[in-house]
# Entry
Amino acid sequence: MSDEDDKKPLSFGQMLQSILAAAFGVQSGKHRARDFSRGKPSHFVILGVLFTALFVLVIFAVVKLVLHFAGV
# Structure
């Protein structure tokens, strides 16, 4: 990685990949170091909250769908 790459902010895709990897517990040390050196904490907090809300809504919808088909 060059010095130029160390100064560039993370792209949306890189941040999203980091959020997903961290959520499932498979974040690599290399990417974690990159996130801490180049990422803004506010961006990670916002994406983390949005991912968590979306995850909860998907789980809720799946449970409602299963209960609907089960006739409950």
User: Anything to note?
Assistant: DSSP finds four helices and no strands in the chain. The mean pLDDT is 90. The two ends are 56 Å apart (CA to CA). Residues 30 and 65 are 40 Å apart (CA to CA).
